[in-house]
Write a structure and sequence with these properties.
It is built from 5 helices and no strands. The chain is mainly alpha-helical and about 110 residues long. The chain is elongated and about 70 Å long.
Length: about 110
């Protein structure tokens, strides 16, 4: 009888541990996701305009900011958010990397 009780107690504890250990899926905020796409686009843009004057890159960068519905202040705010949540940087760079690996897959800006 004692063995049966111990088994059920251990089974119950195991179940509770498994229930509590389920991984929470982490995602970026919509703003951080848009910033990741913006950053990736700027990396590609810089490579494309490598021989051009800096003013051409600056003008194109402003157009990208508008495309992704960002102001410079929005970028700073989103970067501050990422600094407050360091684990989100990994997700940020994964999204940048994914975008850079297949830039044609996502030709439009993500929604605001």
């Amino acid at each position: 009888m004692k063995r049966s009780s111990y088994f059920w107690i251990l089974a119950w504890v195991g179940f509770l541990l498994l229930a509590n250990c389920t991984r929470k899926t982490q995602t970026l905020s919509p703003e951080a996701s848009r910033l990741a796409h913006l950053y990736a686009e700027l990396v590609l843009l810089k490579a494309q305009l490598s021989g051009e004057p800096d003013s051409v890159f600056a003008d194109s960068s402003l157009a990208s900011l508008k495309k992704y519905h960002f102001t410079p202040e929005d970028c700073k705010t989103t970067i501050e958010y990422l600094h407050q949540h360091p684990e989100k940087w990994v997700l940020f760079y994964r999204e940048v990397s994914s975008y850079l690996e297949n830039p044609n897959k996502s030709g439009e800006a993500p929604p605001r």
